């Protein structure tokens, strides 16, 4: 390793290249473009998304959804045996095999074949253009920090001593915890609470805000709230967990809702209260990189840090912590760092989705944001119960809501709630990125019957508003003639 590192050190002095921490996308693209690239990983290639985030969570959500569907099967006229049950260890085994299969794309072998030098170890800057990995020194012309984030630890007395789950260990569970307390009603808490509840955990969500999924529109969160009630999840809003103790092997958690105090006894506590950037140990001071302990590495519009040679991407610097925003920001870094590009982060249109059932997906701005920016906004909403395919599928909960700039057909944003909202939001995102307005969207022929027709219906609703009384009377006269 030391010898290999020394070779790198020499070649790096001559070549223009990108030294990057972790981000596989950037490493692949930069190497494919001919840059000399090293990638440093201290734990597992693939990061949170593959190992303890998107991939394992979606694999278990799929199993929970299937089980829920089987329980409702009689509503579709399908008889299922009365003794169906979930084999939790088989669910977790499938999740592991899904993860293993997807991990092949992120393997060290694939990276090496693509021309990327992979170093395993902790990266630590020792200067403005040098860093070490386990005693090996690497010199870089350009570097990207993509060290991600980790779950924060809520400061609840007794929690650490009692033991608790986060996304880092919940996917290692061998047995289904029942009952389960989920602290935090954000996307992570909601997705996993619903999955575990459907597997059979008696699940409680405690959220210290008056609403869960606080970022989303209220009518969207309300539909999910109704779905949670059907799943038997107990949602306690305005509720703080204030103390944890262990008695007879159970975790007793004191909850305070306004002035009302109660205690719940659970097998496990899962926290999903926020993320902290992974900046410790990087010795950013030596690199001259400014950071903020809460928000991570400070970057300008072009993702450049206070050290002009060093860029950042992904969770460690972005407000929107998603795999696709990490991916998109890493691509910007490759362009800006290696090709003197000036692509700003603000040029990106980033959708997102919470993969509950129904899913809640969003892109662009919310009405409240448009108002804050003094933009006149109009909205068309199409409930899923008006969409033939949603009726046929028995998936009528939800809506497509498209916001556009008044007086134009320019789409400002959209929220979709539905079984397949995450798939459906991509059409609106495409329209926004390509500058396609509602007028054109109304002309796009959608296959019948699909739930995505809801988007076309919203666009049709816009087109109908173009029929002003004078145009209508003109048309009437033309037809009479
Ligand atoms: C339960 C859960 C579900 C999620 N589901 C979704 C989803 O459905 N869709 C979605 O878009 N997003 C989802 N996310 C978010 C997504 O996982 C993250 O936004 C994404 O992984 C961020 O990518 P990243 O490259 O910035 O960081 P990471 O994927 O965290 O990668 C950072 C890597 O850097 C390494 N590292 C850190 N410090 C050092 C160091 N000093 N030296 C060397 N290596 C270091 C780490 O080991 C890690 O491998 C989910 C997250 C969680 C927790």
Describe the structure.
With 481 residues, this protein is an alpha/beta fold. The chain has 17 helices and 24 strands. The protein has a five-stranded parallel beta sheet with strand order 3-2-1-7-19. It has a five-stranded antiparallel beta sheet with strand order 20-21-24-23-22, sandwiched between helices. It has a four-stranded parallel beta sheet with strand order 11-10-9-15. Strand 4 and strand 5 (130-133) form a beta hairpin. The chain is globular. The termini are far apart. 42% of the residues are buried. Residues 21-23, 40-44, 47-49, 53-54, 57, 122-123, 146-148, 167, 188, 278, 281-282, 314-316, 321-324, 326, 355 line the site of flavin-adenine dinucleotide.
> How many distinct beta strands?
24
Strand order of the largest sheet: 3-2-1-7-19
Mean pLDDT: 92
First-to-last CA distance? 87 Å
Shape: globular
Spans with pLDDT under 50 lasting ≥5 residues? 1-17
What small molecules does the structure contain? flavin-adenine dinucleotide
- Helix/strand-derived category reads alpha/beta
Portion of residues within helices: 25-40%
Q: Main sheet?
A: 5 strands, parallel
| Rg for CA atoms | 25 Å
Q: Could you tell me the strand content as a percent range?
A: 15-25%
Total of DSSP H or I helical runs spanning 4+ residues: 17
SSE layout and pairing:
Layout: H1 2-14, E1 17-21, H2 24-32, E2 36-41, H3 47-52, H4 54-71, H5 88-103, H6 108-113, E3 116-120, E4 123-125, E5 130-133, E6 136-139, E7 142-145, E8 149-151, H7 159-162, E9 180-183, H8 187-199, E10 203-206, H9 218-231, E11 234-236, E12 239-247, E13 250-257, E14 260-266, E15 268-271, E16 275-277, H10 284-287, E17 291-292, E18 296-297, E19 310-312, H11 323-338, E20 352-354, E21 359-364, H12 367-372, E22 377-383, H13 388-393, E23 399-405, E24 411-418, H14 421-434, H15 438-441, H16 453-465, H17 469-480
Parallel strand pairs: 1-2, 1-7, 2-3, 7-19, 9-10, 9-15, 10-11
Antiparallel strand pairs: 4-5, 5-6, 8-16, 12-13, 13-14, 17-18, 20-21, 21-24, 22-23, 23-24
Helix pairs in contact: 2-11, 4-5, 4-8
Bound molecules: flavin-adenine dinucleotide.
Residues 21-23, 40-44, 47-49, 53-54, 57, 122-123, 146-148, 167, 188, 278, 281-282, 314-316, 321-324, 326, 355 line the site of flavin-adenine dinucleotide.
